Structure formats: C-alpha cells, structure tokens
Amino acid sequence: MQSNRKQTALITGASGGIGYEFAKLFAQDGYNLVLVARSVDKLNEIADEFKSKFGIGVKVIFKDLSNPSAPEEIFTELKQASIRVDVLINNAGFATYGLFNEIDLNSELQLLQVNILCLTHLTKLFLKDMVKQGSGKILNVASTAAFQPGPLMAVYYASKAYVLSFTEAIANELEGTGVSVTALCPGPTESGFQQRAAMEDSKLVSGQKIMTADTVAQIGYRGLLENKTVVVPGIKNKLLAESVRFTPRKLVTKLVRSMQESK
Question: Where do transmembrane segments lie in this chain (predicted)?
C-alpha cells in the first residue's frame, strides 16, 4: 500500500454518513485509505468500490471503538503493516437521547468512550509521528452542539464541547510544527445519526431542511486543507454558534431543551 508513498488518510466511522463522504473525497484526490468501522460487509463493499474506481490502496479495519483497546490495536496493526498515516479523521461518534436519569448507563459510557476517549487516544498515538515528520493533518468531528448545553442529550453535547475545546487547544500547541488540527462543527446532518439516537421526532430535525453528509464533508475537507482550526458549515449554524456567546446561559439551555423535545 505504501510502495509509491501516496499520502494515506485514516477515517473512523467510515461505513456511512460523513465518514463515507470524507473517504470518497480523499479517494478522489488519490489518497490511500484506512477505513475503520464495525460493519464488515459495508466496509468491504466500499473498499472494492474505491479501489476499482480510483485506483488507490484501501485497508479496512473492523473495530468496535467503544472497546478501550481499539485505538492501540489500530495503531499497532498499521505499524506492523508499515503504513504511515498522514491524515487522521476522527469521525466516529454517536448520541443518546432522553432524560439523563432514564438513559441506560452503559450506552452513555460507550458514548464517552467513542466520542472522547477513543478520539483522544487515536490523536495522541498518530500525532507523535506527525510531529516527528513535520507534517500531518487531523480533523475531529465535533458539532454545533459543542457551543451550548443540551438538555435531553446532555452527555452528547458535553462530549462535543470537549472535542472542540481539545482541538482548539492542541491546534495552538502545534503552531509551527507543520501539523494542523481542525474541529468540524456541523449542525443536524442527513445520515443514520438521528435514527441511532432515536430522535427523529425531535423539533430539531423533524420536518427541518438539514444539510447532506456530502455537503458537510466537502466543507470540512476544504477547511482541513486550508489548516482552519474551527469549521462550522452553513450560515445558519455559524449564526447559532456565535449567538449563544451573547445570550444568558440559562436562556440558551431552555431554548435548546425546547428544540430537542418531540413535536
């Protein structure tokens, strides 16, 4: 896969939605790919599609990222295969929906493992080599949820606030190293995300015109290549992210609760 030293992009959550669209964009630009997800059949199908259509190398790694050992296993497998990762896309993530005291504890702990711990762990592992070689890019998928508290999705919103804060901090630390880190903060997006969170009936998404996954990925991809630290796709989302800074937090929380409730 590395014989001609094409650049390689590793993408988690690559079997659908924003992750798949990112993979397609990198493939179109001639990158080799490492695709990580749990869906064996879907990943193999995508790998075959991209190899035949774009003439690139594709390595698939089947991992459940809620398993704490997954990041180290991914890193070790790539080291043993002599695959150097030039771009890391930490896209995998999911949400839970409902009252915090009623949601299953294990579901929320798995959310934290995937959205925060796995993302941090993978970043730590691959960033060291990027800094040594003086080049590399990382994109962490956060959300407009990162900018305010989120009643009925309390743990998810908090996890994305972590991703945004973490990304901005290490982006500052990495200035002058040749490595850039970007936080992509999309609003509601057409993907399997809402179905998995069982929130299709919430006012936030039900009956709303929301961005497609390919549009979000394209905006994020451009921002990554331009070394932007924070990318918020869409004027409406940008206004939302800015407006909460000037609104009392208690009011923001009430407004978010109202949007999250079912119609």
Answer: none
Residues above pLDDT 70, as percent of the chain? 91
The CA distance from 94 to 193, in Å, is 7
Nearest Cα to Cα of residue 50 among 20, 72, 7, 17: 20
Domain extents in the chain: 8-260
Average pLDDT over residues 249-259: 88
156 is catalytic: yes
- What is the CATH superfamily name and number for domain 8-260? NAD(P)-binding Rossmann-like Domain (3.40.50.720)
Give the CA distances from residue 95 to residues 40, 52, 123, 180, 188, in Å, rounded to whole numbers and listed in that order.
22, 34, 21, 27, 12
Please tell me the number of Cα atoms within 13 Å of 163 on its side-chain side: 39
User: Active-site residue among 20, 31, 156, 157?
Assistant: 156
- Alpha-carbon distance of 211 to 19, in angstroms, equals 15
Stretch (H or E) spanning 11: strand 8-12
Q: What is the pLDDT of residues 116-159, one digit of tens each?
A: 999 999 999 999 999 999 999 999 999 999 999 999 999 999 99
Distance CA 18, CA 189 (A): 9
**Element housing 136 (H / E):** strand 136-141
- Which of 9, 201, 208, 17 lies closest to 94, judged by CA? 17
